[in-house]
Design brief:
The two termini are 40 Å apart. The protein is flat. By secondary structure, it is α/β, with parallel strands linked by helices. Helix 17 packs antiparallel against helix 18. It is built from 24 helices and 30 strands. 40% of the residues lie in helices and 21% in strands. It binds adenosine-5'-diphosphate and magnesium ion (MG). Adenosine-5'-diphosphate binds next to strand 22, strand 23 and strand 24.
């Protein structure tokens, strides 16, 4: 474990720099919180003028402290922090908890950079600045101005919002979601979310890592930290709507909102997502208490048809569609219900079900090898006692001795049900007030297994490429002062990375056009070649299915005239004469250089579908063959590729390969390419491959 981060999150001794004798001041609150919770380490209040606070001896400066100091919690104004960092460094402090605000969040990045550099020169790490602090139940440590330690539990939360930390701290009691650690990271100037994920993964008191994320700088480090972790990680990402509006020259740019890119990155990191704050609580509870669900067979037990149907709907929504249990399972379940009950799935024991039936069916179902996960529902009735039912469920689970299969519960009712659920949660069984929540929580436990399978599957292949040629093409365009490549140049770059592009050559004159057309063979396609015309069709610059010499000549003139009419001062290189590809299913590939994750690729159905349906999916590049194949299945239009209405299936294998090659290209040329796309790529029948008929590359701006 990282020693400095250890010192910050689990200090054996802590100095409070700026300890105050005045109630209401942060320097007082932090000290009081440390004392009040019974922190078992040594506390050193530091204040140049006070002599005693809360009955503790006060030291004039860090250097006066007699013993070693693991962490210094800094609460003094921003302008004094730099000097304090020096003092701490000289004393040999290991880590700093900088609560003070007034750094990059108010525009003072220089000061923030200065204190980080300084801390590093003393081998210290910084949590913060601009944070509430850090809390740990297992250490009775409340080094923060949040009023108390959270409800005890096994999840640990890292949050970028300090206000949210204080709110979640309080809500942990009412929502009955327990935490061991709550860590506020504020500006994350030094210790990052990724660092904390790695640290918490090794923390014995943490079983699930819960994250509230507004945005981070080290996207790729996060993916690596997530992949390497052995505990479930769940993230709630906020602020997903702002960044998509960034002006973009390509389809991909406008389609790649933060939401989709973050979702892709979370998936690649093996991180489960929460849809909102409620969902973060609910899923965190299940992930912190229950083992992952290892198969697809979910069984639902209920005493009411209504909640059963709601659970059935939810099961489909969250990727766990219910299947009928095998006949022998049904036969056994039938024994614990009246004649009119149903042993299918959901298993409806009817409103007559009391303690005994709940106990028997839960015990049988939970122990049965067919069942991979169990959701037990209960509708409060006048005839039954919720606490008794809960007891029945709990004993069944305990008697089964099973520890590697998940169970979630939902009691729908009033105060009695609430009490019963509280008891279950205390015993480690997640219980929720609505059936869809219990199923959603189970969905998270299933997702976890899927995500782990994905991150551990085959590595990304490194295909042989001719990056030298590609870079020469780019260098030439840059020499000419251009920010984009023409289609011909783009295709040269694509081809250098093994992508199947149509043959295309530049004709400067009509005669050259005719000669090239004859060489390539009719029919051909003619397209304007100008770095100033990115969308060629819009300029009347594309003619397909050109069949003979006369047509080549006519079209040459028409295209030139159209282009000039479209943009009088356009720099026109000539006209591309191109092999005409046969018709195929149109798909689009695109890329952006995401500010957080770097080169990121998009795939979707092409043509009008792109703009209208936005049926696209993303991955941070490069992608493995498995991920590429999954991308094909993720779009809503996936059945079109599989072959609908008697049409032959498309060559998905070739398309997957193209996705891998393309992702490799944008990854390798990330220093050069800002955005790119291939729109359309034509996909043929199985065995007949794929053809890139249009390509576009937009270069990164260089200083
Ligand atoms: P742009 O997107 O700049 O308007 P494209 O090169 O994509 O221009 O051409 C427009 C359309 O013409 C394509 O969507 C495709 O349907 C068709 N097309 C272009 N090139 C070819 C080709 N080589 N073979 C067959 N069809 C083509
Ligand atoms: Mg196009």
């Amino acid at each position: 474990m990282n020693e400095q981060i250890n010192a910050v999150l689990r200090p054996k001794s802590i100095a409070v720099v700026g300890a105050s004798a005045t109630p209401g001041k942060i320097g007082y609150t932090v000290l009081e919180n440390l004392v009040k919770e019974g922190y078992n380490g040594v506390i050193y209040p530091i204040n140049p003028t006070a002599t005693e606070i809360l009955g503790m001896k006060v030291y004039k400066s860090i250097s006066d402290v007699p013993g070693p100091i693991d962490a210094a919690c800094i609460t003094i104004p921003a302008k004094f922090v730099s000097a304090a960092v020096d003092e701490c460094g000289k004393k040999g402090v290991k880590g700093l908890i900088i609560i003070t605000s007034g750094f990059s969040e108010v525009g003072d990045r220089a000061l923030e950079d200065e204190i980080v550099a300084k801390a590093h020169s003393y081998n210290m790490r910084i949590l913060g600045p601009n944070i509430v602090g850090t809390l740990s139940n297992s250490d009775k440590l409340n080094a923060s101005f949040a009023p108390f330690l959270p409800l005890e539990g096994k999840a640990s939360l890292v949050t970028q919002s300090g206000a949210l930390l204080i709110a979640i701290d309080a809500a942990s009691f009412t929502r009955r979601v327990g935490f061991d650690k709550l860590v506020s990271i504020g500006n994350a100037a030094d210790i990052s979310i990724s660092d904390l994920v790695t640290w918490l993964d090794e923390d014995a008191s943490t079983s699930c890592i819960s994250l509230y994320i507004e945005g981070f700088k080290d996207g790729r480090a996060f993916i690596e930290a997530g992949k390497a972790a052995s505990k479930p990680i769940i993230a709630l990402k906020s602020g997903v709507s702002a960044h998509g509006a960034a002006a973009a020259a390509s389809h991909t740019g406008s389609l790649a909102g933060a939401a989709k890119v973050y979702s892709a990155a979370f998936q690649q990191a093996g991180v489960i997502q929460a849809s909102d704050l409620n969902n973060l609580f609910d899923r965190t509870l299940a992930l912190s208490l229950q083992p992952p669900m290892r198969g697809d067979n979910l069984l639902v037990l209920t005493n009411g048809g209504g909640v059963g149907v709601l659970a059935t709907d939810a099961a489909e929504r969250y990727g766990l569609p219910l299947k009928f249990a095998p006949a022998d399972v049904q036969a056994e379940l039938k024994k614990h219900m009246p004649e009119f009950g149903s042993a299918k799935n959901p298993v409806d024991m009817t409103g007559m079900a009391g303690l005994e039936w709940y106990h028997e069916t839960t015990k049988f179902a939970y122990s049965h090898p067919w069942v991979d996960g169990l959701v037990v529902l209960y509708c409060e009735t006048a005839m039954t006692n919720p606490m008794e039912i809960a007891q029945g469920i709990l004993t069944a689970v305990e008697e089964s001795g099973i520890k590697d299969k998940p169970i979630t519960v939902s009691f729908v009712g009033g105060e009695r049900s609430d009490k019963a659920m509280r008891m279950l949660v205390e015993k480690g069984i997640p219980a929720y007030p609505a059936p869809d929540i219990a199923v959603n929580a189970m969905g998270a436990l299933r997702e976890y297994t899927h995500l782990r399978e994905m991150v551990t599957e085959g590595a990304v292949a490194a295909p042989k490429v001719d990056s030298k040629t590609a870079r020469e093409v780019i260098a030439k365009a840059r020499m000419e002062g251009r920010g984009a490549l023409t289609e011909i140049e783009s295709k040269q770059v694509f081809a250098a990375y093994g992508l199947p592009v149509t043959t295309t050559q530049l004709a400067r004159t009509e005669d050259e056009a005719v000669a090239l057309a004859k060489k390539i063979g009719f029919p051909i396609v003619m397209k304007i070649v100008s770095p100033d015309i990115l969308h060629k069709s819009d300029a009347g610059g594309v003619k397909v299915n050109v069949k003979d010499e006369q047509a080549v000549r006519d079209n040459f003139r028409t295209i030139m005239a159209n282009a000039r009419a479209y943009k009088a001062d356009a720099d026109i290189h000539g006209i591309a004469i191109q092999e005409m590809a046969p018709w195929g299913t149109e798909v689009i590939l695109g890329s952006v250089n995401d500010p957080t994750f770097g080169p990121t690729m998009m795939f979707g159905l092409g043509g009008i579908f792109v703009e209208v349906l936005k049926d696209v999916t993303f991955r941070v590049a490069p992608v493995s063959a498995g991920q590429a194949a999954r991308m094909l299945g993720e779009i809503r239009g996936a059945p079109i590729l599989a072959g609908v209405r008697g049409e032959a299936p498309r060559d998905r294998k070739a398309l997957s390969e193209v996705l891998c090659l393309y992702s490799n290209m944008i990854f390798d040329l990330a220093d050069e390419i800002a955005e790119s796309d291939a729109n359309p790529v034509l996909v043929y029948e199985e065995g007949k491959g794929v053809k890139v008929v249009d390509a576009r590359v937009i270069l990164k701006k260089k200083a």
